[in-house]
Amino acid sequence: MEHGRGTKLAMLKHKIARILEQAAKAAQVEGLLPQTALPEIPPEHPQNPEHGDYASSLPLRLAKVAKMNPMTIAQTIARFIGETEEIAKVSIAAPGFINFFLNDKWLSSQVAEILNKGEAYGELAVGKGSRVQIEFVSVNPTGPIHVGHGRGAVLGSTLANILKAAGYSVEREYYVNDAGNQMEAFYRSLYCRYLQALGIECEMPADGYQGFYPVALAQKLVSEKGNAFLNMPVEKAVREIGKLAIPRVVADIKSDLDLLGVEFDVWFSERTLFEKGQYDKAMALLRKGGHIEEREGAHWFVSTALGEDKDNVLVRSNGSPTYFASDVAYHYNKFLERKFDQVINIWGADHQGHVSRMRAVVGALGINPDRLKIIISQMVTLRRGETLIRVSKRTGELITLRELIEEVGPDACRFFFLSRSADSQMDFDLELAKKESADNPVYYVQYAHARIASIMRLAQEQHIDYSRGDVKLLTHGAELDLIRKMMLLPEIIELASQKLEPHHLPYFAQDLATSFHAFYKQCRVVSQDEDLTRARLKLVKAAQIVLAETLKLMGMNAPEKM
After folding, report:
1. What is the pLDDT of residue 394?
2. Where are the beta strands (DSSP E) in 397-543?
3. Which residues contact 396 (CB under 8 A, 6 or more apart)?
4. Residue 458 pLDDT > 70, yes or no?
5. Which sign, positive or negative, has the C-alpha torsion 71, 76, 81, 83?
6. Which class is domain 438-553?
7. C-beta separation of 498 from 433 below 8 A
8. What band does 180 get if pLDDT is binned at 50, 70 and 90?
9. What is the pLDDT of residue 323?
10. Topology of 8-102 in CATH?
11. Which of 298, 302, 321 is nearest to 311 (CA)?
């Protein structure tokens, strides 16, 4: 596997894995270990720094097959590990670990590596240009985005940034549900609100959209169009209002997402699946494969034949396609027409039951279901300290994303939404998000960057040229710990891209900020010692690059002052 454009630590983790493999094979050749296949076990970072920078549990994994004591295996493999510039020492530890300690001189040299890479530091080539589509948010265009959708928006946009940094070709897409029963109900609701705004009595449909948004939108239509829709047959008036409403609702959604720094490459219309024939092609392909049966006038996807618990309706007995049928056509379009190598859907918790049938139907279309990844974004609970917030004070309805952004700011929204794995329900504390103290992780991380910017301004004011700084002078424990932390960025990008888990970034950002604040307290950067000042300024500049890149991946600002 190809790794990284010169990102040494991503390479180092894999290099240590190769060193272990070569040592174990050498021991096998000497007859000291039995000839058995070696499991792939990537080295990990021990929780206790006293156990080294990396540790491998390979001896423990080999013990059962080899019928040997894991400590004996560890001693045997360690004997065959040669010297390298990166590794200062190799040791073994019970019950069967091999520990690697990095060379301090090599560590300090990595500051120059980061400075040379600049903003490209951390970028990898693991994706090899593979085409990935991420579809996220995709809220029905019937009103503003709410807080829960905001979480999916941040997960999707951050994941897109991570995958791009890992060398994938990424396309971000919003699927606009502008067809189907829900939209019909929305248009009828709008028509009713339009009549009411003109003083004409109208009873809202049973499946109508209540709330403030349709009322406000109808009032806008009255102010712009007057009674223009009154002289039309009802069905035509509903259609015309719908045509006017959709672009306005989508524009409002775009505007809210812009506030959060979330952008899309494609806004895909569900309606086009029917207009351009993808729906018909997808259904024909399923029929050809024997996956559709007709019962009682309805058309069913026979998913039980593929191991599902029940079959699923594609076309109702009245001839109207289900939401599931549209999704089948949409994935036909993604995989077989636009030919994405991998498709990632980020869905809300209410779509959990839709996952397995979607994977089943993708398989029925002749596509490997492993190419479809579905991330379920769990619910968000808003709090002010201990007080639970259920509805907006302004409208008495669900709190909109815009209201949340206006209160705590986009950076706090993004950081907090990312701070838990997607499959965990989360509490969002508005009071904490606004706190200007180290208790607030957003403030803590951004303050580290502002502090770095302040040091670099001081150096500039004092006309210090640190380009000739000698990084070999960086020997203090706090300096080396900061370098160790900075060098983890490529690994974090690799991990997050492989597991599709953006939440590793905010944890890394906090750890990096902690290491920087500790270094700042223990090591005076600009001092009477000119040589050490230049070396430390190089370190600070490298830390700025890594921290700014981490914030950028999360879609956050890297403030120069706070």
Report:
1. 67
2. 426-429
3. none
4. yes
5. positive
6. mainly alpha
7. no
8. confident
9. 93
10. Gyrase A; domain 2 (3.30.1360)
11. 302
